[in-house]
Amino acid sequence: MKLEFIDNSSPYLKDIKKLWRENSQTLGFFPEGAFDDHARKDCILASISDSEELQGYLLFREVWRGSILPIGVIVHLCVTERERRNGVCKALVYKFRELKKNTYFKIELKCRQDFIANSIWPKLGFVYSEERIGRTGQPLIKWEIRFRELPLINLIEKSDSEDRLQVVLDANVLYRLQDPLLDYPLSDKYLSEEAKALESDWLDGITLIITDETPNEILKNNNPSERERRLLFANKYPRLHTDIFEVEKIEQELGQFFPGNLSRSMRSDKKQLAHAIAGNADFFITQDEGLLNRASDINNIFNFRILSPGEFIGRLDESIREREYKPSIFAGSRRLSISKVTSPGDATLYSDFRQSTTGERRRDFERKIRAFISQPRLYSVEVIRCSNPEQNLALVVYDRNNPEELKVPLLRISKSNRSGTILRYLLRRSVLISALEGRHVLSIRDSTLFSNFELAYIESGFVLTEPQLWLKFTIAKADSGLSLQKILLDMKQKKQAYQKVLDNLAESLLKALENEDPVALIEIERRLWPAKILNAPIPAYIIPIRANWAQHLFEEELASQTLLGSEEDLTLRNENVYYRSKHSNTRIKSPARILWYINKSKKYEGTMSIRACSLIDEVIIGSARTLFRRFERLGVYRWEDIIKTAKGNPDERIMAIRFSNSELFKNPINLELLKSIFLRSEGKNIVLQSPQLISRKTFTEIYNLATKEMD
Fold this sequence. Notes:
- The chain is of the alpha/beta class.
- 37% of the residues lie in helices and 24% in strands.
- Helix 6 (171-178) packs across helix 7, helix 8 (213-219) runs antiparallel to helix 9 (224-234) and helix 20 runs antiparallel to helix 21 (518-528).
- The chain starts with a strand and ends with a helix.
- Mean pLDDT is 83; it is low at 153-162, 328-334 and 555-571.
């Protein structure tokens, strides 16, 4: 027996699909295209016999939920009937456990309570975690194997999550969800199976919805009993709320993609799309080839995804991340502006930021804003706007009454498909403001967003300490772990209300230092960012980068400066990706630190120096096509740029480095100084043609010099 990951060119992929089909009553529907996507991402582990025959497979997803490490979610574990009770199932799980124990926080799965497999999971090391009712109405048991405990992980796990993707179903998908497979001819069976996969119990974090156009589409059927049957089924799904005037406006704009005399069906398609876009849904799922062929063009204009069920399921985790964080939506002319609010009388403020859930009245809203505006030395009220189209995006109030803490008593985000990105932008900006002002604590208290955007807070290093209070420590200091622990303990004396969190962090920091655990130390660093634990056993690399890419990849506000004259507001880009050839003398690991060396360029000043530091979250090697699709939401690289890295071959395997928490240096380290540091610390000359692993001593010296306050 041999156990190996298979890709989409493997001859065993066909056998895996066949084995799934034979067991689909238990495994559930799964689109053929989703198998291909998982194979491309090395997410299928196969067991092959000595006679080169498939014995079974384990198919899994890699899910990020705010931790420095992902979670492995098992979707299928299936063994051929002949090989059952021969140890294949155990071998697959044990191999998967062994391969992922250092790179995953945990592995988990969900299994129907009435399935016999529930008796197997404890024998394979899984622990019962929770249960709930699945999409099919049957109880689901959640099983997990934890590989490590991370600081404050109980808060991280709460992101599993009330904030669901709003997924609009086209009528053709809705009908196939309703009708049994037997009602379809063999040629249409694939489409029916693909649609039914949307109701699988393992699909977390989505809500399937319909629009007001769906009943109108059903009405076109001439058979009264069929209309009644369709409408009864459609009404099981929530209806997307839309403004009719906005729908009509968008429908008109969509006309450019639907020229000429339209059939009744195409007119309905256009209206369905207009509803989905106007209602700020996240995705539109269809099996209409005409719409799918127009999907890319429509997305370029409306920033709205149209996918087939198979594409959506195959990219589910990327789809969730795309909705959560997509800075590319502000590229080009969609610039942000931040201005002080001097009067609460602006009618758009109330209409865009009122708390509709509590029925907040205009008088109460304006009274609250006026109270803040009347004390400009203690409070600042800011509104974030976007141009093209011009609209209010966020309203934030900063409270500076306490010199050691920056408080945010009010934070409102207007509802749109940009909300997740804007919230991350504001959290990031608030952290930077607090750190620059020398405050060690940032607290945000407001009831508007907490159930919807929990993951955004967690990923930004915040901790939920009360039902409506998020806390982030903003220590602008690079020092040893023990020195930072002392700061936390000193803070505890002054901040009794935060004693539990500070105790947890101080204890976790000491334990991680004793165990030399780089993953736990990185997790703690994120809670304290922009602090750096300089004696942490975290790998560090110097990575050379072209100047034209550097200006787009780094955040620019920590040092209140612009790197190489970038015109974009790059605080949006806390998370980013850098592509390069997979060939390198140095193997790059994660998590790790990067020092960015800007290559020589005549177009820009300040090159040939180390100018920034980042944290590596993930290093992925895959085909150019797959990696571009995965990270397209980040919006810096275009396909033309990626294909150059891949030497013109879309299937060429390249490297993507996903990084975050970038920090610009006050004192860039020029090449001459870098050479002398490197020779002194490493005992050799530096080579800057490819990534270079450096010692902790070298990193510390460069970082301290680059961030030192100059006389």
